[in-house]
Q: What sequence folds into this?
């Protein structure tokens, strides 16, 4: 399969496909300062919970290069300042904070020299990227358990190569199914307001030769009523300890519709997207974005210019509407606090988990 | 309230606000041939089930003017041909066919002269328009029963002056509530793909000074979960004998979501939108429209150009998800075949209906 490689580190710069230009232009831009990385995350030139974390990691590398001529104490202070700045780029996806915490710990606990810390920071950024790539593959493998040989699935937003460091989460399962020779038909929600489904997912699937049918978000209910949908596969930006999940706006509605139509509804995410410090989804901060994202498309107002807008970027799907969370370490069916904590602390070995749920 | 007057007959031409240009341009165009009326309906320059019927009626007037110099038999044949042509403009809204049937009957059963028939045709077109205007007012009045003094409602597509011959159906209830001094907050689904919510409803409500908040269709579920919504009010393009209702795509999903959140879900339509010849919603033809409506916004592709699209213009909401149908003759709570047939044949007087349902 021809899968995009939208984020890489080269010549001391972070290179990303500018996702705001897709699908009309496939352009890679290079980011060489912390501020540029912050802006790229905030503007959604790079988006998707795992990809945001990876980009932020490379942002810390850029910070270390910027300050490498300072004495070690100042060097550390400056980087921690930049880390705190990067934390403010977006509020919902937990991967951003978990990645930045790793760098914060590395720097705070290090008693090495500036060049040694610089090297360690670059190695950590590359390791986080490689780790996510591997987790995508593991997710793709585990996910096959819920995908029949001939499957019709529905997905929302973009959860593919453009959202991660590898083949993706929900789309990673679809790519893997295709590689295994399964026959797929994919319905793609366009995902208003920023159209990640039509701009990115339809683009990725076409690129990989997988048949996709684009729909407006409000057609999903009719598709569920009139087609046999085997699975709804979506990503996650943060999963609370009880399984409540923040994901792209529209996910919650899909989960309610799936429940009504008796269609399995799967959250697909690496374990790095879990935030066990939060008891439930009500504690996950939801980003509110600019009204213009709803009112302007392709540079033109599609509503009166002064109309009020409610524009939450994410919603919360309660765990009881989630059939299973598909992770890189296996599948958590009927997620709840008990199962997720046991799973996370490895009390269950993977075969035992499956056995206990049958 | 300042309510638009988007359709009127003047100087032997039909004048309509070209709704494809809203909200950026408020322009009235004049239509002076049957083909122009057909095209305006097909292109959605005029839309909304009642307004389509009204426009088609004036189309028949234009046909009669075009053929008035023919002998009476040819005159009648030509008009019936034009009537059959107008029937093909759009398939789902029943008002189009019911209006055209009235003209067909008038012409077929008339033994008058050409000038007399011309006059009768014009009078019928004007009467259909006036009748719809009156029905909108009656709907607005009956609808107050379900709207509290301070209300938050959610609506979909456009059901206002731009969709009817008067103040509208669902929006007519909102306008009437405002006139009665009720405090209103209206959430408006943008209604992809053609954005009748953002382009038309947000425009109408702003024009009338009613506070509106625009949302993407996929935000409706979160709005229902996080706000106290008193009522969801939507229109209808055709209501079958058992209460199953065809309306703008997305309506069915809203009904499922309303059911899940225990929010009353109201279909608002004049009795002219009922089609008692169809037993249920499965028999209502659903218009499939061009893929480009989903793929192109403001002249630009928002998806890969070759992406496949599923673009049904309407969906079917089964009657068991409908709290009530609000009509110009009163409210039918818990609609089913029995209640609608009784209601339609006036077995129930209005007070008796309400009494029997309490």
A:
């Amino acid at each position: 399969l021809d899968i995009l490689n939208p984020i890489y580190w080269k010549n001391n710069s972070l290179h990303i496909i500018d996702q705001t230009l897709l699908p009309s232009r496939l352009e890679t831009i290079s980011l060489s300062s912390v501020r540029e990385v912050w802006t790229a995350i905030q503007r959604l030139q790079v988006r998707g919970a795992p990809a945001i974390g990876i980009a932020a990691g490379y942002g810390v590398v850029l910070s270390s290069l910027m300050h490498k001529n300072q004495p070690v104490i100042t060097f550390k202070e400056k980087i921690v300042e930049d880390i705190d700045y990067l934390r403010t780029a977006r509020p919902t996806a937990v991967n951003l904070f978990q990645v930045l915490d790793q760098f914060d710990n590395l720097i705070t606990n290090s008693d090495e020299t500036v060049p040694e810390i610089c090297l360690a920071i670059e190695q950590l950024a590359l390791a986080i990227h490689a780790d996510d790539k591997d987790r995508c593959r593991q997710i793709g493998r585990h996910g096959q358990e819920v995908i029949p040989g001939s499957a019709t699935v529905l997905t929302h937003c973009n959860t593919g190569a453009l959202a991660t460091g590898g083949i993706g989460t929900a789309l990673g399962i679809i790519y893997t199914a295709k590689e295994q020779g399964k026959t797929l038909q994919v319905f793609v929600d366009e995902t208003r307001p920023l159209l990640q489904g039509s701009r990115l997912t339809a683009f990725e699937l076409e690129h990989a030769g997988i048949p996709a049918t684009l729909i407006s978000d409000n057609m999903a209910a009719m598709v569920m009523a009139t087609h046999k949908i085997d699975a709804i596969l979506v990503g996650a930006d943060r999963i609370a300890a009880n399984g409540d999940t923040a994901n792209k706006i529209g996910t919650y509605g899909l989960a309610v519709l799936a429940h009504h139509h008796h269609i399995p509804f799967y959250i697909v995410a690496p374990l790095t997207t879990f935030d066990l410090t939060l008891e439930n989804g009500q504690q996950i901060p939801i980003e509110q974005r600019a009204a213009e994202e709803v009112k302007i498309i392709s540079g033109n107002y599609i509503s009166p210019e002064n109309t009020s807008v409610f524009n939450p970027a994410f919603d919360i799907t309660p765990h009881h509407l989630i059939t299973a969370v598909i992770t890189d370490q296996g599948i958590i069916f009927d997620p709840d606090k008990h199962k997720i904590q046991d799973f996370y602390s490895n009390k269950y070995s993977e075969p035992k988990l499956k056995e206990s749920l049958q």
In short: Chain B touches chain A through 54 residues (CB under 8 Å).
